[in-house]
Amino acid sequence: MTDSATSGSIDPIEKERQLRDESAAWDTSSVEPALDSDIPVIDLADYLSSGSAESLQNIGLELKKACEQVGFYSIIGHQIPAGLVASTFQAIRQFHDLPMADKQSILMDRPESSVGGIGYLPFKNRKLPARDTGNLNEAFIIKQDQDLTLSQNLWPAESLLPGFRQVVEDYALAMERLGKQLLPVYATALGINERYFDEAFKSPLYRLRMTHYPPNPNAESGEFGIAPHVDTSFCTILAQDQPGLTIFSERRKKWIKAPALNNAFIVNTGELLKQWTNDRFLSVKHFANNNVATTSRYSIPFFFNANSHYRMSCIES
After folding, report:
1. How far is C-alpha 281 from the geometric centre of its chain's CA atoms?
2. C-alpha–C-alpha distance, residues 140 and 223, integer Å
3. d(Cα 317, Cα 69) in Å, to the nearest integer?
4. Which residues are CB-contacts of 237 (< 8 A; sequence separation ≥ 6)?
């Protein structure tokens, strides 16, 4: 993608190197509980049910404040059925309970695979984000864009996990729908036409990561469930079954533990939206761990991006 403000193409390898170097300098030794005022909670119920101009303007103002001052916010009233979220978490637990040989059969980035970045990512992997020490998680990842359908992803055999694929596809499609419903809100927050992002998100690129953080009471200093990083997405919509996300509060200049609210998603701006808004919206550094030594933690981040062929320029406002 290109940016008219810089008049040149983005080198993804150089961008990754830059972000990796920055993250190595972050001091994560001190973490505090979040205050009630640290992460805004935005209720989408009225906007999604009425679709009124007034509700869009009101929620746009809330989103503007959240994205300019915090970079993270929680959403409630999102109309994603609680039963779908629960069944997806259950399906993910069943996947990660499979014998290792079955998970390895759909290993990510095998030499014979024509598509990268999908499939099973083992424990202590050094990808997503790339780091010298292994991330203390394992994950199953699918993605879709204009060139790749959900059916072309790597899936466990139906005989191993009956109904698994259907549940995951249903969840992915629900997240795509929710992401698109948020686009007019982002546009309104930026003071531009509410349909501004529509063209960019025809056949959007998205990745769904189903992550398992096993109990790891013997984790060494400097090890993370997912190492400190910033997301490269337009936005990320996260479901988590228990707390474990830590974000950097730009207002307080402190690392804070994000809560896991009931029937809520936590959403954050990624580097794509930060650049699109000429750094007006924050892309906030964060990391994740399993904070409980005796039970597993599961999370489902949905990384939502514009179509990779869409030509970007900084938003004029």
Report:
1. 16
2. 21
3. 17
4. 75, 175, 178, 179, 265, 266, 267, 301, 302, 304
Q: How far apart are CA 205 and CA 233, in angstroms?
A: 9
- Long-range pairs for 17-22: beta carbons < 8 A, 24 or more residues apart: 19/129, 19/229, 19/230, 19/232, 19/271, 20/129, 20/130, 20/131
Tokens of 74: 């929680």
CB 240 within 8 A of CB 302: no
Q: Which structure tokens are listed for 109?
A: 């980035």
State whether residue 54 is helix, strand or coil. Answer: helix
* CA distance linking residue 12 with residue 263, whole number of Å: 35
pTM recorded for the entire structure: 0.91
Judged on CB neighbours under 10 Å (0-12, 13-18, 19+), 105 is: middle
**What is the Cα–Cα distance from 59 to 38, expressed in whole angstroms?**
18
3-state secondary structure of 188: helix
Amino acid at 291: N
Which residues, at least 6 apart from 145, have a Cβ–Cβ distance to it below 8 Å?
203, 204, 205, 206, 307, 308
Cα(235)–Cα(92) distance, integer angstroms? 22
d(CA 163, CA 283): 36
Going by the DSSP 8-state scheme, the letter that residue 289 receives in this structure is -
DSSP annotation of 8 reads E
Q: Which two tokens stand for residue 121?
A: 């990512």
pLDDT digits (tens, 9 = 90+) for 242-260: 999 999 999 999 999 999 9
Cα-only R_g, the chain: 19
Query: Distance from first CA to last CA of the chain, Å, rounded?
Result: 20
pLDDT tens figures, 108-152: 988 877 788 899 999 988 765 666 677 899 999 999 999 999 999
Q: In the 8-state DSSP scheme, what is residue 107? A: B
